[in-house]
Amino acid sequence: MADLIEYKCPSCGGKLEFNSAAQKMKCPFCLSEFDPADFLNSDDTLSEQQELPASPDAENGWTPSETEGLHVYQCQSCGGEVIGDETLGASKCPYCDNPVIMTGQFSGGLKPDIVIPFKLDKEAAKKALLQHMEGKPLLPKIFKSENHIDEIKGVYVPVWLFDAQADAAFRYQGKKIRRWTDQQYSYTETSVFSVDRAGTITFQNVPVDGSGKMDNTLMESLEPFDCKAAVPFQTAYLSGYMADRYDVDEQASLPRATERMKQSTRQEFAKTVQGYDAVNTEHEHIELTDAKARYALYPVWLLNTSWNGTKYTFAMNGQTGKFVGNLPSDKGKAWAIFFAVTAAVTVVSYLIGMLMR
Predict the structure, then answer these.
(1) In degrees to the nearest 10, what's the CA dihedral of 315, 321, 322, 328?
(2) DSSP per-residue letters across 270-305
(3) What residues are paired with 101 via a beta bridge?
(4) What is the DSSP annotation of 152-187?
(5) Half-sphere exposure of 34 (CA within 13 A, CB side)
(6) How many CA atoms lie within 13 A of 306 on its CB side?
(7) What burial class does residue 133 get, using C-beta atoms within 10 Å of its C-beta: 0-12 exposed, 13-18 middle, 19+ buried?
(8) pLDDT computed for residue 45 by the predictor
C-alpha cells in the first residue's frame, strides 16, 4: 500500500489546497496563504520513491477481474483507503475529503518537467457552462432548466510537448486565368507557373496529450495553452485537484506530433504562394530533425451532465477559460426554422419574378 502526500497548514494543521485565484497554497480554515515554493522539500524524495501498488483483496468483496489495474493508497489523515486506477496521481480522500497526491506516480522518470497551474476555479467553469448555452436558438429550453451537473472536476492532464525543426521544400503549380469577350466570342487564357518554396520552420511546445482516457480532439479544441506561464513541477500545485500520470509514452505520441507539425508546415508554406487564381501542390518534402520532448501537466475542468437519458461532456481550459462541448438540438425548432426560411425565400423569389414581368 503506497503512502500519499498531504499538505498541512503550518498555522492550524488544516488541509491546504492550491488556490487558483491567489496562485498560492491556501488554508480554508484560518485563510493563511503560502507560496508553493515553501513546500519544495516535500518533493525532494520523488526521485527516490517507488510506487507500491496493491489491489483490494477478495475479503472486501472484490473479484480478480475487478481488482485488475487498481491500486490502493492510504490517507495519512484518517487512514482510509483511496482506490484508483494505475494512472491516478492526485485525488481526494472519500472519507475525510482531504486532498491527496500519489507520490509514486510522479517519481523518478515519471516526474513531469513543468506544470501550468490552474488560473480559473470551479465557479468559473460553472459560469462558463451557462454562457455556453446562451444564444443557441436550437437548444431545447428545457435542457437549460433541467440540466444538472453530475460531476465537475479539475484535472491535470499529462501532455507531451515536442520541439523540432522542419526542413521543407515544396513545388506548386499556380494558375492565372484571364477572361474577356468581344462581339463574337468569349475567351479564356490560362497561364501556368511552377512555384518553388524551401525553408525551415522551428516548432516549440507542440502538444500531444499522454492520456489514453482523454479524447485527443477534445484536448486540441481547448488549445492554446500558454507555456510561458508554466512553472517547474511541484506536487503542491496538484493539491485539491485530480491528476493523471501518462499512459501513452513519448514514443507513442511522436507520430501525432509529427503529423501536427507537418500539417502546420504545409499551411505556412502555402500562405506564401499568392497572386494566383488556383494553386495545387505538385511535390512536397518535409524532414523533421532535432526532435525532443518535455513532460507537462495541463489544467482542464471537466463537466459531465445528463439530460433525457444522454450524457454530455464539456471541458474548459483551466488557464484561459476557453470552453467546448456539444449541446443537444431541438429537432422541432430546426424544422420550424427550415420551413420559415424556405417560405421566405419562396415569397422573395415570387415577388422578384412578378417585378421582372
Answers:
(1) 50
(2) HTT--S-SEEEEEEEEEEEEEEEEEEEEEEEEEEEE
(3) 5, 90
(4) EEEEEEEEEEEEEEEEEEEEEEEEEEEEEE-SS-EE
(5) 25
(6) 5
(7) middle
(8) 53
Question: Domains of the chain: which residue ranges?
Answer: 2-111, 122-129+151-300, 329-357
Gap between the Cα atoms of 231 and 237, Å rounded? 10
CA atoms 253, 259, 263, 265: torsion sign? positive
pLDDT for position 117: 95
Q: What does the block give as the cell for 89? A: 496521481
Q: pLDDT tens digits for 260-307?
A: 999 999 999 999 999 999 999 999 999 999 999 999 999 999 998 877
**Nearest Cα to 245, choosing from 316, 156, 315?**
156
User: Looking at this protein, which amino acid is placed at residue 124?
Assistant: A
Which element (helix H / strand E) includes 34? strand 33-34
Residues in the chain predicted with pLDDT less than 50, given as ranges, are 1-2, 47-55, 58-59, 62, 66-67, 333-341, 350
